[in-house]
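Illustration: leucine--tRNA ligase.
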Amino acid sequence: YYKWTQWLFVRMFNHGLAYRKKASVNWCPSCKTVLADEQVIEGQCERCNSVVEKRATEQWFFRITEYADRLLNNLKKINWPEKIKTAQRHWIGRKEGINITYQVEGSDPSTLPSTVTVFTTAPVNFGATFIVVGPEHNLAQEAAKKDKKVKEYITKALEKSEIDRIAEGRKKTGAFTGFYAINHVTKKEIPIYVTDFVLGHVGTGAVQGCPGHDRRDFEFAKQFKLPIPRVIVGEDGYDGPIKTVDQVVEHGMKGTFVNSEFLNGLDFEEGLQKTMDYFEEKGWGKRVVTFRLRDWCISRQRYWGSPIPMIFCKNCGWYPEENLPVKLPYLKNFKPTDDGKPPLERAEKSWLFTKCPKCGGQAKRETEVSDTFLDSSWYFLRYPSVSEKVEPKKVQPGQSTNKVGPFDAGITRRWLPVDAYIGGAEHAVLHLLYSRFVWMALQDWGFIPKKLGDEPFPFLYGHGLIIKDGFKMSKSRGNIVNPDEYLDKYGADVLRMYLMFIGPYDQGGDFRDTGMKGMSRFLTRVEKLVSEKGRSLLLVDKVRPFQHQTIKRVTAAMKNLRYNVAIAALMEYVNGLEKEGVNKDSLKALLLMLAPLAPFTSEELWEKLGGKFSIHQQLWPKFEEKLAAAGSVTVVIQVNGKLRKKAGVSLADSQNKTKMIALAKELTGRKNPLKEIFVPGRLVNLVVDWF
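Result:
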């Protein structure tokens, strides 16, 4: 399998989507490896919860950002839970704005940057009174050389996790760099600070502060006693000084420009666009689109993984290995090291050194392995073809997969894309995003037909979480459910059906022992129906419409993954059969609908009913629309003999006096009638005292 993962890497490299660069990356001191941004959860390693550090080192990256727009726009095409699509939209983080370049006053071009460029989506520049840069910014680094306080601040800032740095509600901190810039439109001098809430890799790593119209900027200006001019009046019409954060009118709110010369009187959005036009005309800025998404760092400093199939020659640079797979060599000690060097650096020289594919001179293999998320980004393409005998040939860069490849073209056309993906939201910005990217890249290279669509998972359903005693199951709470004891006591079918009945599949529910007992009783009733099938055959005509209605309801529920609804419908059906009687046809329908929910019980009862082959080889029962419709009746609701309402109810409910009386009271608002008249399947008449 990892031969073809390496093949995928080579493809990425040959198409310019894989590259190596020195960058500040996430480092887990416990796992002793680099982590992708997506594997850092609230500043901690998703695997071991250690606080993640930042390290500057050379790594391999995939240009997933080249596909940012497509990854974002395609979310409109796919049938996924909105919360997962929202997570991907936020992670991709597309923003339209403008880069504005300021001259740094008094800068020496030989030692200092002469300009600083800020990115903003809301250029209310008549209200800009300061600039802030991140501690990674070169201007901050130069200031640190001259000012001890700035240096100390930067050191402390870089020790914090990114999550801590951008957390809302925390006190705003910073240090004055000693540099100033000139506001283009007000011509006033504005100070430049370094602050930890600006991240070096987001936008340009620098932001202009407009404290009257951004809450974060307001808090910073208050902390450092900077001017807070008003240039937008909100819907309330108040145009006085901005003294509290509640008076800040932010981008996205309705407002009108004031104190802004040629912008006065324009509404908020129109004024922003005119400002961008003006700055572009003057050469002070340029409209840009930015993304929160960063290129995928795939280098890992572990032993277990797919060796990155690259060779480095001092004369020729990096070249892909042509003979795949690059097998993982045996290492007696494969533990990661504190210095960050990959364990494969300790491999035998016969593995470590090889010939350069270009000049034939000595070259060294890459000793890092790829992120395991690269393996899982394409498994759905390989699995359908895994039984196909692929002739073992040397894979040359650029070689056609018609001769040798990771997946069979014909099989892929038959089986892909994936019909249904069932998974939790934990994969939202990891596996799901990476798989979409890999699918798009392979399709661009001609390995996946366009007619299969440009998404690998058109339909995704996120399952919910089953909790216990109101809390998520955990060893510390002592509320772990061990399925073995329930399997021994009730059997697999009872446990399976209870888990499906506990709540909507996308929401989950609270596990309770009483529910297990109830489900066990239900299956016992089904068994009893089959064993007593000759009890009453005269009333089955009444059941036929109800049978077809139930098949229709269960079919729709199963198709929509509403298992709890399907089971509830079967329970109603069993109630009806117990009351009205059964025949072989009604029982066959019951068992066929029950089969995917309780496979063992239904198989045994199917044999008792005379089934010759496995129930799981039978066709799903069909319903007749006419009979299914007949299962739904209209009941007339009267008050003192006069028509008040008509209600469409199931045939079973129309026969239930308690349900129909309760429905009539609810629909008419008559809670305490003097008398109740019930005609099964036809009407309910409530006799009331008018006075």
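Reading the tokens back as a structure: Confidence is low (pLDDT under 50) at residues 394-403.
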